[in-house]
């Protein structure tokens, strides 16, 4: 959040334009945009009956969110991260930057967090993930940079365990 606010202050056209030039355009995200009006969303309670409801626009949360997109763009974003598209093909900068990386607070020496991404080393391979939610919708992207394999999941259910689902699919 603080980094995004700093970008907003020091770039000529602000945070929105910086995101458009450096993320949206570079990754080819066709539907990602700032949420400027409420849309119809969906919710799935435990009884399994899908319900429609008006979702709130979270534009006021920029730079800590406030964007809307679809699952295809989230997959393109995960691929761009995995292949280093944002860093001139130096994808390892995300997890090899000792200044920005800190150990997770849990007792797991192989689990780390850097630049908004969680990652874990296992058998010399790295697994990278990030998740989020808005209202009752949950999203999760996870990828293995060593072979550019990944999964993106979006579910309209507050109780959905998307990290576990991703783990089973990738294994």
Average the pLDDT over all residues and give the rounded result.
75
Large-scale geometry: globular
Strand content: 25-35%
Count of extended strands: 10
Query: SSE string, helix = H, strand = E?
Result: HHEEEEHEEEEEEH
Largest sheet: 6 strands, antiparallel
Distance between the termini: 33 Å
Unreliable stretches covering 5 or more consecutive residues? 98-102
What strand line-up does the widest sheet have?
A: 5-6-7-8-9-10
Radius of gyration: 17 Å
Descriptive overview:
The chain has 171 residues and is α+β, with helices and mostly antiparallel strands. It has helices spanning 2-10, 14-27, 71-83, 162-170, and strands at residues 33-34, 40-43, 51-54, 67-68, 102-103, 111-114, 117-122, 125-134, 137-144, 149-155. Strands 5-6-7-8-9-10 form a six-stranded antiparallel beta sheet, sandwiched between helices. Strands 1-4 form a two-stranded antiparallel ribbon. The chain is globular, with a radius of gyration of 17 Å. The two termini are 33 Å apart.
Quickly list its features:
26% helix; alpha+beta; 171 residues
Give a brief outline of the structure.
By secondary structure, this protein is of the alpha+beta class. The protein is built from four helices and ten strands; from the N terminus they run ααββββαββββββα.
Layout: helices, strands, pairs:
Elements: H1 2-10, H2 14-27, E1 33-34, E2 40-43, E3 51-54, E4 67-68, H3 71-83, E5 102-103, E6 111-114, E7 117-122, E8 125-134, E9 137-144, E10 149-155, H4 162-170
Antiparallel strand pairs: 1-4, 2-3, 5-6, 6-7, 7-8, 8-9, 9-10
Helix pairs in contact: 1-2, 2-3
């Amino acid at each position: 959040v603080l980094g995004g606010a700093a970008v907003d202050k020091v770039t000529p056209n602000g945070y929105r334009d910086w995101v458009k030039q450096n993320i949206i355009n570079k990754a080819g995200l066709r539907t990602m945009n700032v949420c400027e009006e409420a849309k119809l969303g969906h919710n799935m309670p435990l009884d399994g009956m899908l319900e429609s409801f008006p979702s709130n626009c979270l534009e006021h949360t920029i730079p800590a969110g406030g964007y809307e997109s679809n699952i295809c763009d989230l997959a393109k974003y995960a691929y761009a991260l995995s292949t280093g598209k944002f860093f001139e093909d130096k994808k390892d900068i995300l997890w090899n930057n000792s200044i920005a990386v800190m150990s997770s607070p849990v007792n797991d020496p192989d689990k780390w967090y850097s630049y908004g991404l969680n990652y874990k080393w296992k058998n010399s391979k790295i697994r990278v993930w990030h998740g989020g939610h808005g209202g009752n919708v949950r999203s999760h992207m996870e990828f293995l940079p060593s072979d550019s394999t990944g999964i993106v999941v979006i579910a309209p259910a507050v109780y959905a365990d998307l990290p576990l689902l991703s783990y089973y699919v990738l294994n």
